[in-house]
Amino acid sequence: MATPTLLPLSDVSAEECCSLAAAPIEPAQAARSAAMFKALADPMRLRVLSHVAAQGCDAVCACDLTEGLGISQPTISHHLKKLVEAGLLTREQRGRWAHYTVVPEAFAQLRGLLEIG
Amino acid sequence: MATPTLLPLSDVSAEECCSLAAAPIEPAQAARSAAMFKALADPMRLRVLSHVAAQGCDAVCACDLTEGLGISQPTISHHLKKLVEAGLLTREQRGRWAHYTVVPEAFAQLRGLLEIG
DNA sequence: GGGACAGATTGATCATCGTCAATGTATGGT
DNA sequence: ACCATACATTGACGATGATCAATCTGTCCC
């Protein structure tokens, strides 16, 4: 259990660091980048993510999100899972509580892609 | 609440300049931002966009995209329309040809949202 | 005007997604 | 052992989206 669902993100630093404007993007990288953008492409998920990001380096308990967003607990759980799968958040279990933290490298990578103009 | 004002369609610079981490995002802005990310959330659309962005400030003719991407002309047209609607590209008709150019301000805005960590 | 061309639109199909109620799984407290 | 809590998973449903073939709309040239 608790086999780290921490999928790669392996070498973010060495990974394609370049903008969409540098050259026509490769299909494989397009698929990976689109998957990350897809995680950001839902209003409620952006709000969930923003609540976590607003806590800075601190981890945020899922129980703090179930209130004030106006959606059910399973839906929040669903969104958090998507964000973790996309590599934007990490999950850490502490007793009964699940704590989430942003992954700064992922955001840096996306910012790099959007360096245009 | 912060500003219940109507959003200015033209004033990108004065628009919400802040990251997701600055504060929990407002539902209205979450919807607008998610719409832009949604335009980026498809691999083929990222490739189309990248082809345009790779031309820098020059406009790119749609006819240059129909070859080399492996999808039909209507699908390319569909993706270009989505990118224009999202504000990431502008369209300019020149005779029989449609030319597309990136909108740097849109990308700057998205980079601002992703300033995390 | 008539034909050729660029590209947008339509309609259909198949897949994916957001959401919820209900249920399941683990953990902590007594 | 038992129950309450925190969260994940399942299954269902309605909505959205990507793609294509066929068709339509406009523009250029003779």
Can you walk through the features of this model?
- The structure is a homodimer of 117-residue chains.
- Chain A has helices at 27-39, 43-53, 73-85, 104-113; strands spanning 60-61, 89-94, 97-102.
- Chain A has 117 residues and is α+β, with helices and mostly antiparallel strands.
- In chain A, strands 1-3-2 form a three-stranded antiparallel beta sheet.
- In chain A, strand 2 (89-94) and strand 3 (97-102) form a beta hairpin.
- Chain A is elongated, with a radius of gyration of 15 Å.
- Chain A starts with 26 loop residues before the first helix and ends with a helix.
- Mean pLDDT of chain A is 88; it is low at 1-15.
- The interface between A and B is large, with 39 and 39 residues.
- Chain A binds a DNA duplex (30 and 30 nucleotides) through residues 1, 38, 42, 44-45, 61-63, 66, 71-81, 93, 95-98.
Structural class of chain A: alpha+beta
Largest interface, with Cβ-Cβ < 8 Å?
A-B, 39 and 39 residues
What gap, in angstroms, lies between the N and C termini of chain A? 46 Å
For the largest beta-sheet of chain A, the strand count, sense and barrel status come to: 3 strands, antiparallel
Q: Give the ordered list of helices and strands of chain A.
A: HHEHEEH
Low-confidence stretches of chain A: 1-15
Residue-averaged pLDDT of chain A, rounded? 88
Relative strand content of chain A: 5-15%
Give the beta-strand count of chain A: 3
Instruction: Report the principal-axis shape of chain A.
Output: elongated
In which order are the strands of the major sheet of chain A placed? 1-3-2
* Assembly state: homodimer
Helix content of chain A: 40-55%
User: Helical segment tally of chain A?
Assistant: 4
Radius of gyration of chain A: 15 Å
